[in-house]
Sequence to fold (414 residues):
Amino acid sequence: MQPMASPAGLVALAICFLVLVVGPDGAYGSSRGSFGQNNGAAAAPVVNGICATSVTIHGYKCEEHEVITEDGYILNMQRIPEGRVSSGGNKKQPILIQHGVLVDGMTWLLNSPQQNLPMILADNGFDVWIANTRGTRFCRQHVSLDPVHPEFWDWSWDELVSYDLPAVFGFVFNHTGQKIHYIGHSLGTLIGLASFSEGHQADKLKSAAFLSPIAYLSHMKTALGVLAARAFVGEITTIFGIAEFNPKGPEASAFLKALCDYPGVDCYDLVSAVTGKNCCLNASTVDLFLQNEPQSTSTKNMVHLAQTVRDGVIKKYDYGRPDYNLMRYGEPMPPAYNISNIARDLPIFISYGGQDALSDVQDVQLLLDHLKFHDVNKLSIQYIKDYAHADFIMGINAKDVVYNQVVQFFKNQQ
Ligand SMILES: *[C@@H]1O[C@H](CO)[C@@H](O)[C@H](O)[C@H]1NC(C)=O
Ligand SMILES: *[C@@H]1O[C@H](CO)[C@@H](O)[C@H](O)[C@H]1NC(C)=O
Ligand SMILES: *[C@@H]1O[C@H](CO)[C@@H](O)[C@H](O)[C@H]1NC(C)=O
Fold:
């Protein structure tokens, strides 16, 4: 395999993930425009929360909640407690929905109520909780830190595993007194898999659905590899520092532009090659997406993802020096997450797409290989030939293709 100069490559990847939804019509310019024009927009608080802008307008009840992580981040959650037509008094099962990197929970809600996953679940009698990770627009508060300071951004997806997930699981469990069905997309699958492999949430978890799973990342497709190989390994820290990674900020825009201006790099091709060609997106939904996303994460999180690509294994953040790792972990190398340790009787549903260049089919096979001793009747796998990464959250036909299966899977666990 071609070695990837990973941090820069992953930044390119992430940015391209955002560009990807523009789709095959070559509307690259419009997304670039949005990167350039909204400097700082990710930091600007929006007056109305996700409930008001995206849920109650469709006639659903929606509650805004605040959850504090053990390391002090104040996370925002939405709850859709029931469907539009309340289906009576029996106790509803809670479902926790976790989005991917550089977006927030609103991405689940951009399609119509008949098409989007949270509302379909609510209409099917579930109690739906939408998580938002630290750093995204409604999760920029902390008990003592401020997002203008680098310390606020000193975390990677390890902390999403160690702090964000336990906080939201604990919160939902306390509110409902019931075990929780988990749904993750993209990075939301990786942190779920990592967490469950360490036995966290075992007492609170009923089953898990992983859409477009990201665990192993070493087969991500070639255009990125070519691009990344040309980029400098240290580039990301020189440009961004250990701080906020704001994809709408001037540095990220300049970085993307530099990559796109690289001789021989065609950003139109890059988008398809890196992210896969989404079959089934609605142009209006894509516009809405670009009004709301992308959103910030930490540079350290991007570097950690890049390490996952580079190393072909799922490990904790590598400080790059044995002495630093020793200080942090008590070992010179970062400890690995062992996916095979996930409880073999945990009901799991995995859905992956044949066109998904981020969750590459070969990498999904590697993941499935690590689950080969899982109880056969507890593992459901769905392969969708035409689907790429964003179809799983915004596909106009996702209800028929994926969500009905997810609903059935959860209903089978009752
Ligand atoms: C859940 O309730 C327990 C017991 O009251 C409490 O110790 C814990 O902090 C609560 N967790 C959350 C996340 O609210
Ligand atoms: C696309 O989105 C628009 C605006 O929400 C909606 O009116 C239209 O019905 C959608 N098209 C499809 C095919 O879902
Ligand atoms: C991972 O976990 C599996 C199942 O518990 C075990 O058989 C295997 O040896 C572990 N792998 C490593 C590298 O520790």
